[in-house]
Design a protein that fits this description.
Chain lengths: 244, 421
């Protein structure tokens, strides 16, 4: 998900708005067919702060491999996402464990992201109905606000999600996650556009939980390469530890 | 005539028909015995429930940092980041005469996987002092296959249901992963030293027990950082006063701590006990309500047989009020003898039943209630308040039962009665 929501589109704003296309492009185009990159993750909580760097690889929306580079204590710890399953590789004990469905709501690597975040957003338009709820200016920029409401038959984590998308570049500038009572649970900000592989993308994503406004998880994309020729076979369990 | 004379007449009337008086006493005394045993039995059940529910995994009193509850965050340890001198704190608490035992606790949440990582479950990790734990709680009393884990040896105790789900046995290896207090992802391999069985599958499925030091290492807590101290006391049913005393002891600690009795943590048990206690009045009313008809019948017969005598007394100038008093004094005397009989039988009966509860485990399995195990033990407790209430009820029953026969007896016209009409 960390790469999937960094959206980019060249769709001209003057055309009739295709909301599904905007969200799909936002999810699809960040990786191209496949991508690799290096991300720095800063986590600030009431009790501790920590920085991690990790390399990540993705294929479409369904496959991702994230490996921690620093700090040294956790170097080599890796997460594999394949479809809707997640495995964690633990180099200290040289074991791989599959995250059970019951623990998908748990924190991913101590961040404010959950394991669910890794698997859920790959299918946003399948699970949510989209509605344009605002078309105007926010903070001096022309934006659309697209609200995603869960389809009745789907079991999802959020009551609704609202994406704020800049019209000129068709990129999200913010995503707001609401619980079933309509209360804001967390928000994500997309900032600091940077050129990656010929594409201008927000290079920083900052997640702030609504109930702990002093805490945050910030993902800073340092490298991002698109269409690197990876396919499903790369995202196999054996690769979790092969590249230590 | 003096009041004493009417009293004596009433008292002597008891002995005039001894068999009938004895039967009445049996009725009233039997009612008394029935009430104190029945209520004592329910009381025994409530005490078993309280002991089981509050002593299963926790102590009668729990001590922790004030910010620990309700979120139970891994950071909120006793003494904050600096921790505390655990042994010194435990000694301070044990100095209270009502404190029987104390044991430290550390908690974490994480994943437990079979050694090959194929099967994983979420688990609550409970760090215990294996030597002290069983003197405070009873969840390990149900039996441990294997043995308790040794501190510092990366050994754990799994619940039977979790072991079944993970398909592991004693001696197998499990992986545990838990977020540390510093944000890191603690993980390590552990040997299954033992498997505990409680009879509560939900508890067995959700919990892993390991020595405090091993859990502290996994979740990056210094040895002086613990989350709770569980306290066992001599009277688990009434923990409030001890909790207040321990709070005073804890006031000298540098960080804010609280001593919370189970009555605060498990209000549902308090409510159930209060609800059941409120039925005691109904039990007393029902038992003596039935007895009152038997006593009234006896008194009616007794006064009917003495109608000529009463007529003579009235003819000689006794007031109807005096006659009524005589009959009521007789009833009070009967009540007194009944009470003596009831107490003489009840005291040894309840004393024996209280000290030697009847074990019904051959007849019924353990009862699971409120997340705890209750053994099928039939014990009867001494409830002084109910003994007093039952005594009062016995006298009230005796007097009320005599009231109607007494009033009826003095309404007979003396002349007609004496002439045989």
């Amino acid at each position: 998900m960390f790469v999937s929501v960094v959206a980019v589109s060249v769709a001209p704003a003057q055309m009739e708005i295709d909301l599904v296309d905007i969200i799909n492009q936002a999810q699809r185009l960040h990786t191209g067919d496949s991508s690799t990159g290096v991300v720095r993750m800063e986590v600030v909580t009431e009790h501790w702060e920590r920085n991690m760097t990790m390399e990540m690889a993705s294929y479409g929306n369904d496959y991702a491999l994230i490996r921690i580079l620093t700090p040294a204590k956790e170097s080599g710890t890796a997460t594999l996402k394949a479809d809707r399953d997640i495995w964690n590789y633990l180099p200290k004990i040289d074991r791989t464990i599959k995250v059970p469905a019951s623990m998908m709501g748990g924190s991913w690597m101590g961040s404010h992201f959950t394991n669910d975040d890794l698997v859920q957003e790959s299918t946003l338009t399948d699970e949510y109905d989209l509605e344009l709820t605002f078309d105007g200016e926010r903070d001096g920029a022309a934006v659309w606000e697209i609200t995603l409401i869960p389809k009745p038959e789907t079991a999802v984590v959020w009551g609704s999600i609202m994406y704020r998308v800049r019209k000129d570049v068709v990129q999200p500038v913010g995503a707001f996650y609401y619980d079933e009572d309509g209360e804001l649970a967390r928000s994500m900000e997309f900032t600091e556009p940077k050129r990656f592989g010929g594409r201008m993308l927000p290079s920083v994503m900052t997640m702030v939980p609504a109930d702990k406004p002093d805490e945050l998880t910030r993902m800073v994309y340092e490298e991002l390469n698109f269409d690197v020729g990876l396919d499903e076979s790369y995202f196999a369990l054996r690769n979790l530890q092969d590249r230590r | 005539m003096t009041e004493w004379a009417w009293t004596r007449i009433g008292w002597r009337n008891i002995g005039r028909h001894r068999k009938r008086s004895a039967l009445t006493m049996l009725g009233l005394g039997g009612s008394f015995i029935a009430v104190v045993v029945l209520v004592g039995w329910v009381d025994g059940l409530m005490i078993e429930l309280t002991n089981s529910a509050t002593g299963f995994t926790n102590g009668s009193i729990e001590i922790n940092a004030v910010e620990f509850r309700p979120d139970r965050r891994v950071y909120d340890t006793i003494g904050g980041r600096d921790g505390t001198d655990v042994e010194h704190l435990l000694e301070q608490l044990t100095a209270d005469p009502s404190v029987l035992a104390v044991t430290p606790r550390v908690y974490g949440g994480g994943l437990v996987s079979r050694g090959d990582g194929e099967t994983t479950v979420g688990a609550m990790l409970i760090g215990v002092d294996p030597d002290r734990e069983r003197s405070v709680t009873n969840f390990l009393d149900g039996g441990v296959e294997g043995r308790l884990p040794e501190p510092g040896q990366n050994e754990v105790l799994l619940g039977g249901e979790m072991a079944r789900q993970l398909e592991v046995g004693v001696g197998d290896q499990v992986i545990m992963v838990a977020p540390g207090a510093d944000g890191s992802l603690g993980n390590d391999l552990y040997a299954v030293a033992g498997i505990f069985r409680t009879g509560v599958p939900q508890f067995e499925a959700a919990n892993v027990v390991l020595p405090v030091i091993d859990l502290q290492t996994l979740i990056t807590l210094d040895p002086g950082r613990i989350h709770q101290i569980m306290v066992a006391i001599d009277d688990p049913v009434r923990p409030d006063a001890v909790a207040t005393r321990l709070s005073d002891v804890l006031a000298s600690e540098p960080s804010a701590l609280e001593a919370v009795p189970w009555t605060v943590l498990r209000p549902e048990i308090v409510e159930i006990t209060a609800l059941v206690s409120s039925v005691y009045g109904v039990i007393i009313a029902l038992v003596f309500g039935i007895a009152i008809f038997g006593v009234a019948n006896t008194m009616l017969m007794s006064t009917y047989e003495r109608r000529r005598e009463i007529a003579v007394m009235l003819a000689l100038g006794s007031t109807p009020r005096s006659i009524v008093k005589t009959i009521l004094y007789e009833a009070v005397g009967l009540g007194f003898l009944s009470l003596v009989f009831g107490v003489l039988v009840s005291v040894p009966l309840v004393a024996w039943w209280s000290s030697s509860p009847v074990d019904l485990s051959w007849l019924y399995p353990n009862i699971t209630f409120q997340g705890a195990i209750m053994p099928p033990v039939w014990r009867v407790e001494f409830n002084s308040a109910v003994w007093v209430q039952a005594s009062v009820a016995l006298f009230v029953t005796a007097v009320l039962a005599a009231l109607y026969p007494a009033v009826r007896a003095v309404r007979v016209p003396p002349a007609d009665t004496l002439s045989g009409l």
